[in-house]
Amino acid sequence: MPRPVGEITRGTTAPNRLRRVDRWIAAVYGRRLPGSLVVDLGYGASPVTTLEMFVRLRAVAPDVSVVGVEIDPERVAQALPYQRPGLSFRLGGFELPVPRPPMLVRAFNVLRQYGEAEAWTFWDSLRRRVHPDGVIVEGTCDELGRRAVWVALGAEGPRTVTFAARLAGFTRPSDLAERLPKTLIHRNVPGEPVHAFLTAWDRAWDIAAPFGAYGKRARWIAAAETLAATWPVAVRPPLGGRPRWRLGELTVPWPAVAPRP
């Protein structure tokens, strides 16, 4: 058997760590998933987040199949007892050892240990293996899942960037910069679009300060409305608007924050 592509991660995981991205996937892509294959790439030392993903996606797509893929043989062996109809685990990496192109791949906290150039390479590799109508959701979050940023990529390339936070778990929107995907995190410097975006979002957050009297949720919504006047923030479902903003999410198209050549 060929050696899996990639390197073993630290494997850090925890129950409910990926609840924010799972909720977003179910809302935005759930209608595409009935009868489809979904891959959870690099689930870590415990299969708990793969199990949670399976349950959450089955709620919107009862016949979806989920495969947890891990590069560490011991982690795969430990996950096998949790298999059930529609949920399985197998050894592998970025080559995606599954029988057909998946409609969705969730790859969370797997690219932090690589360089920016390697991250772009793995994005390209995954895009070649996903279903032509499918999507890769790649991002990072903190240990408890309170702050997260992820990119949605189709076979054609990156589409959107979503910022998500527990509303009681941050001070300013730019706090989310520490969770930017590897392709963006080193670009958060003056002169780069992602830096300009986060600066503008902080400014909108300051303008929305009076709404803080009604709680951080009201302030987040007001800041999103202000930011949308000058940045292409998603303002309509399923990607944007008040239903998503109320949850502490905000999505922009990839070209708005893409690195300069």
What's the quick description here?
This is Class I SAM-dependent methyltransferase. With 261 residues, this protein is α/β, with parallel strands linked by helices.
Notes on the protein architecture:
The protein is α/β, with parallel strands linked by helices and 261 residues long. The protein has two domains: 19-165, Rossmann fold (3-Layer(aba) Sandwich), CATH 3.40.50; 187-251, no CATH class. Helix content is 31%, strand content 19%. An eight-stranded mixed β-sheet has the order 3-2-1-4-5-6-7-8. α2 (48-58) links the parallel β1 and β2 (65-70). 44% of the residues are buried. Keywords: Methyltransferase, Transferase. It comes from Bailinhaonella thermotolerans. This is Class I SAM-dependent methyltransferase.
Secondary structure: elements and pairs:
Layout: H1 19-29, E1 37-41, H2 48-58, E2 65-70, H3 73-79, E3 87-91, E4 104-108, H4 116-129, E5 135-141, E6 147-154, E7 157-165, H5 182-185, H6 193-207, H7 216-227, H8 242-245, E8 249-253, H9 254-257
Helix pairs in contact: 1-2, 6-7
GO molecular function: methyltransferase activity
Keywords: Methyltransferase, Transferase
GO biological process, one term: methylation
Can you give keywords for this protein?
single chain; 261 residues; alpha/beta; 9 helices; 8 strands; 19% strand
* Record field, number of beta strands: 8
Low-confidence stretches: none
Count of domains: 2
Arithmetic mean of pLDDT: 96
CATH class descriptor name of the largest domain: Alpha Beta
Strand order of the largest sheet: 3-2-1-4-5-6-7-8
Content-based structural category: alpha/beta
So what's the overall shape?
A: globular
